[in-house]
Structure formats: structure tokens, C-alpha cells
Design brief:
heterodimer, A: mainly alpha, 15 helices, B: alpha/beta, Rossmann fold, 2 domains, seven-stranded mixed β-sheet, five-stranded parallel β-sheet, 42% helix, Urea ABC transporter substrate-binding protein (chain B)
């Protein structure tokens, strides 16, 4: 039984999970939502990339990063720089003292395009940068931290500090980054107007396809020997090390992968929302992203998506109905989740739906050797 | 104030005699609404672009932060806008239709502003939106308003360098606020040297750029220092030491938000006594709202340059302050932006009635030259560039948290969002 599980790509429940989520994202939401709401859900789904990365890093690998906003933001900024340059053609910016450069540079008396903006004239470069820039930074952080065996709380604090540093850097260098305002008024991508309703629907589906690609990748990582090692590292790091594995390399890999997901999410965010600002980079958004993952259930890749959708939808709905009180309701929701079901929505599903069904099936079939649960959270954690 | 007055708002119903006497003096457009009935303006005629207008009501949006760091500043704007809407409704509404509003929370987060703006325009089809405070939030919603052709009434004094067909700027742009103040401090206080400092974002930087050009190029005086600190910064001791060292005649401060509290307390602790007028402190970013946080005793003697102070002595303002306190509590203070926010619904109403239509294109066309003599700050008029002609005033902070007006420009100052020679 055990061997069968490890060789098959999906168990039936996992396959069902993919099918149900695909039905929700590809059919139910587009059928029931108008373009405005669909665009909102598209935005929520970009956060799901980050939550998915956190499921791998935190849920599987035990690496809690409180700075995922950094990587989301870097991906988003790379995309925004390309779009901004396209929107700043000399004809569009004729009113400025230096036409042809982004408007915020003009406001800040920058009179030439900085050299590191130049490559962002080219879409292929920007697309590669969306993934590569976050990965490069996470690689440096990973090597510096994990090789020195910095982990747990210390790692969380350091990533949080990095989020703070990057925010200060972006805000301080407003002539080059747009400062607090961010990079706004993005219009076209290679001449294609990204603000129209049609574009929003298309971008939603592109986003959904990319998310599924990442979900599959995350699933395969979890299925592979690497995924098993990650869980082993999470639960008993020293034993894995004593068995001869280089723990740091595994951690670096999974951290970089999570950050690559975040970068893709950031880029899709910029495309769908039409701008990028430091308010996605700092400490608060980074912690919010961890909350999405925690509410969904940090051990489940589907939980990450459902959790993100649930929290963000609640945020929108509550703030529309109670503009002055909604933050209290959100606070209550988080406290409720943590107190009532610490493994999030996915844990709730496992305890109340999946396990009873399995038990019932087992009873009807007679005694079978129990299937090992795919992920068994360490209760001591 | 009696209950009766409260329901009437600042435009008490006119007696026949008052009508005869007053109509000559006041703009005729203001009396039009008295006779306007919805049935004279069929919905199909006044709304050809599918806005949320029925035979009895018209819906507008209010979009400010009521949560997050900006809530403390923006709450006053929300209150002023609600007051104006109440008063307009008490007077019969706009084209015979009562104003309803949908309030959304920008949550001090620029992307949320953009999202809520889209919701208001696309889902709710509001006829106009009163809202935003920071430049960042305005920059975030601007593309949305231009794409969906909405109309935004933006209340904050700001850096200029912008002129959107979809925005009416009811606060002052930078040159209106800055130049008169610097001229005043030069003429009245004989200032020769200036020290500029501010929070690090576009408004203080642009404002100081204009101030420096004016000081150095037009007046031939000297700037002895210019520095910026991140938003939320609370350690100003090093800059205060530099100020003491260089002994400028004027400290020109554009510190915003919570940083103000630390700045003025530390300034006082360092022994710079603003009541002695050496050096003079001139700010363009501290309204009565901020003084509530700073504490009147810490800022007493400083000068502020803006278009409105709660202590303005005129009939319009007396009625406005009384109505505001009546609605929101007697301990309320009213700052420059709050007053500018109050103008939003009124200017929109006047433009709609001049256009005879709620359609945004027609309202935009009707907006230039709209006059509003009953504004608490005094007569204002909309310029072709969508900013207001307004007076600039200098006030001196008192220990009780109010300003004493010590100077006001003789004429209305023309708004000039793209000033030549100051770029």
C-alpha cells in the first residue's frame, strides 16, 4: 500500500482536490461574477501564489518567512517597470520637462533614465526578471542563513527586517522607484490595453493557468523524495543531517521556489491591478500573506488557495458593508481561526469530512492496512 | 442652535423680502435649486450615461480612509462631506433629487483606494466621488477615474503638477500656499535665511523646490539647509542641532502626520521658543487637526500658511462651524482640509444645476467659473484648470489649539499647477 502511494502521482482525494479547485476557478467564478468582481478574485489569486510558496517553505520545510512581500513586490516591480516605460513614451509625456521618462522621475527632478531601468524596455528581459530577481535575492538570503544554520524564529525576524529595509529603500529612492506613491498609471503591454474588460478576463485566466502550473509543481515537490526530506527536516533536522544529507541545500531550494512563486504572483498582480506600490512589500502585507496561508492550512496546497480567497473575500465584503468596523470583524475572524482550528480550513476538511468518509469506507470494506496520511503534522510543533 | 436651524443648514429658507434683497447681490445660480423639482427634470434627460440617478435620488460616493494611519486626518473630511450632503438634502437636493451616499474605506492603502474607486464607478455607478487625502491615494485612483470617466472632488492641499479633467481640486496647489507665505515672512519679519525640512515624499519635496526657487531666484535670499526624513520619523534631534548651529531666520517645516508630534515636542525641548519669533517657524502642514495630536502648548507661536482656519471671522464660517459642531460634537476642530472637503458636494451640486444634467461630461463642462460665495473660507471660484481661486492666509498657533489669523492676501490667488520658472 505504502509503495503504491509513493508511485502514483495523485491519490484519488488529491485528484478530486485539483478537479474541484479547477471547477471553482475556471468555471464557477467566471460564470457567476461580473468583470469587476472577477478582477478582484484575480487579484486575490495572485496572493495565493505567495501562500502556496509558504505552504512549501513553512508547512513542509518548517521555514517561516515573514518577508514574502519582498519577493511579491520584486516580481511586481519588475513587471511595473516594463509597463511604466511603455506608458511613458515621449508622446505621452510631452508635458514633462524631460519627456520620455516616467512621470514620477520628472517630479523628482531626475532628468535621465537610470541605467538599471534601461533593460526593462524589453518584455523578455522583464519576464525573466520577474522570476530571477526574487530568486536571486532569496538565494543570497538562503545561503547566508541556512549555511550558518540560522533557522526558526531568527530566520523569521531576519526576513522581516529585510522587508522593512526594502520598504525604506523604495520609499527613500522615490526619484527612481516612485516612493510611497509606487508606480501608477500602467496602461498597455506591447500595445495591448490591460485596462479593458476583455483584458481583465484574459488576464484572470492567464493568472489561473499559472497558478495551476505552480500548484502542480508544488504537488510534485511534495510527492518527491525532496518533499519527504523537507518534512523530515522540519520535524527532526539534526537526524536528517546525521543521515548524510546537506540540509542547507534543500532549504535553500525550497525557499527559492517559494519566492519564485511569489514573484510570479507579484507580476500578475501588477498586470491585473495596474500598479505596484511599497504597500505590498513591507512587514504588514508580509504577515498578512502568512495569515492567508495559516487560515487555509499550512500543510495543504489547496488550503493555501482557499484560505487566500476566503480571507480576501471576507475583507472586501466586510469593508463594503461596515466601512468603519470591518477591521474588528477581520481580527475576530483570525482569532477564531487560530483558536478553533489551528490547521486552518484544510485541517477542518480533514477532520470533519475526509477522515469520517474514509473511516466509513473502511468499515464497509472490512479491515485494510491504514494508508499513511500524506502529511502528518508534528503535534509538538 | 435650535433644532429648527439644524434642519435648515447654512442656507436658511429665504423670506420673500430676503429673496428680493438678496437676489441682486448673490449669484442667481444659488437660487435656482429652490425652484427645482425632480419632475421638471425627467431622469431620462438629466442622466444619459447610466448613472445611479432615479426620479427621487442621486447616489454619490465617499472614499476616505476610516481605518489605518490616515484615519486621523481623513475623518474630518468624511464628516464635512456628510454635513454638506445633509444640508443640500435639507434644501431640496440636487435637481430635485436627494443625495444618497455610499461610503467606502480606503484603509490608508493606495491599492485599496483604486479598488474601491473602481467599485464605486463600475458597480454603484455613482454620479461623483468625494474623496482621497494623500497624493499617493489620488495618484492611485486617477487612472480609474479617467478610464471610467468619473468625477472626483479632492480636498487636500497638494503639490500641483497635475490637472485631470476628472478631478476638481478643492484644496490649494503648492504655489497658492507657498509663495504668499514666504513673501509675508520676508516682508513682515525681515527674514533673510531659511532652513527647509520635510517628510520624504513628493509633496514636501515639490513644495520645498518651489519655496527654494522663490527664495533664491525671485527674492535673492538664502536657503541654509534642506533635509528630509522618512514618513513616521520621530528623531529630529540632529536636525534641531543643525538649526541651532546655522541660526536661520525661518524654519520652513513640511513634516507630516505623526512625525509632527515628535518634531514640535523636541523643538520645544531643545529650547527653541517660537513665541519669541527668533527663529520664525513657518509650516504648511499643520492644521488644527494635527495640533490636537501635537498639543497647543508645544506649537504655540508657530505660523501656518494655508487658506482656511477655524477661527476665520465671517458669517459663512460662523454658521459652518456651528453646524459642524452641532452634527459631530462640540469638541470637534476643523482644519483646512476639512473645510475644503465641505466644498466638494456644494461645488458638484452647483455644477450639476448649471449643466442641468448629472452626466460627467456636462458637469465637467459646466465646472469652470462656478462660484460659491457661501464657502466658509469666503468666496471661491473654479478655475479652468479645475483648481480654486482662493485667498491665502497666515495664522499663528495659540496654546488652545486654534490659529489667530495674522494675514490674508488681498485678492484671490490664481491656481497655477504647472508654475513656469519653478520646475
Amino acid at each position: 500500500m505504502n509503495r503504491v502511494v509513493s508511485q502514483r502521482m495523485f491519490t484519488w482525494t488529491e485528484l478530486m482536490g485539483f478537479v474541484v479547485l479547477a471547477a471553482l476557478i475556471f468555471v464557477v467564478l467566471p460564470m457567476t461574477m461580473d468583470v469587476f468582481r472577477l478582477n478582484l478574485f484575480g487579484k486575490y489569486l495572485t496572493y495565493a501564489f505567495v501562500a502556496l510558496g509558504l505552504v512549501l517553505c513553512w508547512g513542509a520545510g518548517g521555514i517561516l518567512s515573514l518577508g514574502q512581500g519582498v519577493f511579491f513586490g520584486l516580481g511586481g516591480y519588475c513587471m511595473a517597470m516594463f509597463l511604466k516605460l511603455e506608458a511613458s513614451s515621449p508622446e505621452n509625456t510631452a508635458i514633462q520637462s524631460t519627456p520620455g521618462i516616467p512621470d514620477f522621475m520628472d517630479w523628482n527632478q531626475v532628468t535621465y533614465l537610470p541605467w538599471w531601468w534601461e533593460p526593462f524596455h524589453y518584455l523578455p528581459f522583464a519576464l525573466v526578471a520577474v522570476v530571477l530577481v526574487p530568486v536571486a535575492l532569496s538565494f543570497v538570503i538562503g545561503v547566508a542563513m541556512f549555511r550558518r544554520r540560522v533557522g526558526g524564529v531568527y530566520f523569521a525576524i531576519i526576513t522581516q527586517a529585510i522587508a522593512a529595509i526594502l520598504t525604506i529603500l523604495i520609499i527613500g529612492q522615490q526619484g527612481y522607484t516612485g516612493g510611497v506613491n509606487g508606480i501608477t498609471d500602467l496602461r498597455t503591454m506591447l500595445g495591448w490595453d490591460i485596462r479593458t474588460d476583455d483584458a481583465k478576463v484574459i488576464l484572470y485566466f492567464v493568472n489561473a493557468v499559472l497558478l495551476f502550473a505552480c500548484l502542480f509543481m508544488a504537488h510534485f515537490v511534495r510527492r518527491s523524495k525532496l518533499g519527504r526530506l523537507l518534512i523530515a527536516i522540519r520535524d527532526r533536522e539534526d537526524r536528517v543531517r546525521f543521515s548524510g544529507y546537506d540540509v542547507a541545500n534543500f532549504k535553500i531550494f525550497v525557499f527559492c521556489l517559494g519566492c519564485a512563486f511569489a514573484g510570479i504572483g507579484g507580476a500578475m498582480f501588477t498586470l491585473q491591478v495596474g500598479f505596484m506600490s511599497p504597500s505590498f512589500v513591507g512587514i504588514v502585507p508580509s504577515i498578512e500573506m502568512v495569515i492567508f496561508c495559516a487560515v487555509g492550512g499550512r500543510y495543504s496546497i489547496f488550503g493555501a488557495v482557499y484560505g487566500t480567497l476566503l480571507v480576501n473575500w471576507a475583507k472586501t465584503a466586510l469593508s463594503e458593508s461596515f466601512p468603519e468596523l470591518w477591521l474588528f470583524a477581520m481580527g475576530a475572524l483570525f482569532i477564531g481561526v487560530v483558536l478553533a482550528f489551528p490547521s486552518g480550513v484544510a485541517g477542518l476538511y480533514n477532520d470533519w469530512i475526509e477522515t469520517p468518509i474514509r473511516k466509513a469506507l473502511r468499515r464497509s470494506r472490512g479491515p485494510v492496512i491504514a494508508e499513511p496520511a500524506v502529511q502528518q503534522p508534528n503535534p509538538a510543533e | 442652535m435650535s433644532d429648527n436651524d439644524k434642519t435648515r443648514g447654512i442656507f436658511p429658507p429665504l423670506s420673500r423680502r430676503g429673496m428680493l434683497l438678496g437676489s441682486a447681490a448673490l449669484s442667481a445660480s444659488l437660487f435656482m435649486p429652490k425652484g427645482l423639482r425632480a419632475q421638471d427634470y425627467p431622469t431620462a434627460q438629466v442622466n444619459t450615461s447610466g448613472l445611479a440617478v432615479t426620479d427621487d435620488t442621486v447616489t454619490v460616493g465617499i472614499l476616505h480612509s476610516v481605518t489605518g494611519t490616515m484615519a486621523i486626518s481623513e475623518t474630518g473630511s468624511v464628516q464635512a462631506e456628510k454635513l454638506a450632503i445633509d444640508q443640500i438634502n435639507a434644501q431640496g437636493g440636487v435637481l430635485g433629487r436627494k443625495i444618497q451616499f455610499i461610503q467606502e474605506d480606503g484603509a490608508s492603502d493606495w491599492p485599496t483606494f483604486a479598488e474601491k474607486a473602481r467599485k464605486l464607478l463600475v458597480n454603484d455607478k455613482v454620479a461623483s466621488v468625494m474623496g482621497c487625502w494623500t497624493s499617493a491615494s489620488r495618484k492611485a485612483v486617477l487612472p480609474v477615474f479617467e478610464q471610467y470617466n468619473g468625477m472626483l472632488y479632492y480636498p487636500t492641499f497638494y503639490e500641483g503638477l497635475e490637472q485631470s479633467p476628472n478631478v476638481i481640486y478643492t484644496g490649494q496647489e503648492a504655489t497658492q500656499q507657498i509663495i504668499a507665505g514666504i513673501d509675508w515672512v520676508t516682508n513682515e519679519k525681515g527674514a533673510k535665511t531659511f532652513y527647509l525640512l520635510g517628510s520624504d515624499y513628493i509633496w514636501p519635496r515639490t513644495s520645498n523646490k518651489i519655496a527654494r526657487k522663490h527664495i533664491e531666484d525671485k527674492l535673492g535670499l538664502k536657503v541654509v539647509g534642506e533635509e528630509y526624513y522618512p514618513l513616521g520619523h520621530t528623531q529630529f534631534n540632529s536636525v534641531i542641532n543643525k538649526i541651532r548651529l546655522r541660526k536661520p531666520d525661518v524654519i520652513y517645516a513640511i513634516v507630516v502626520g505623526g512625525s509632527n508630534v515628535a518634531f514640535y515636542k523636541q523643538l520645544k525641548a531643545a529650547g527653541i521658543d517660537m513665541t519669541e519669533e527668533k527663529p520664525v517657524l513657518l509650516t504648511i502642514s499643520v492644521t488644527e487637526d494635527e495640533i490636537r495630536g501635537i498639543g497647543g502648548e508645544n506649537i504655540e507661536g508657530a505660523y501656518a500658511c494655508m487658506k482656511y482656519f477655524q477661527s476665520l471671522q465671517n458669517e459663512n464660517n460662523d454658521t459652518f462651524v456651528a453646524a459642524f459642531k452641532d452634527m459631530w460634537g462640540s469638541d470637534m476642530v476643523i482644519g483646512d482640509v476639512t473645510q475644503a472637503a465641505y466644498l466638494g458636494p456644494w461645488l458638484w451640486k452647483l455644477a450639476v444645476e448649471k449643466a442641468g444634467s448629472f452626466d460627467v461630461d456636462k458637469v465637467r463642462e459646466a465646472s469652470p467659473d462656478i462660484e460659491f460665495p457661501q464657502a466658509p473660507e469666503g468666496y471661491v471660484r473654479i478655475h479652468e484648470n479645475h483648481h480654486l481661486w482662493s485667498r491665502t492666509r497666515v495664522g499663528r498657533a495659540k496654546a488652545d489649539g486654534q490659529y489667530e489669523v495674522v494675514f490674508e492676501t488681498e485678492d484671490l490667488v490664481e491656481p497655477d499647477p504647472f508654475p513656469e520658472g519653478y520646475q
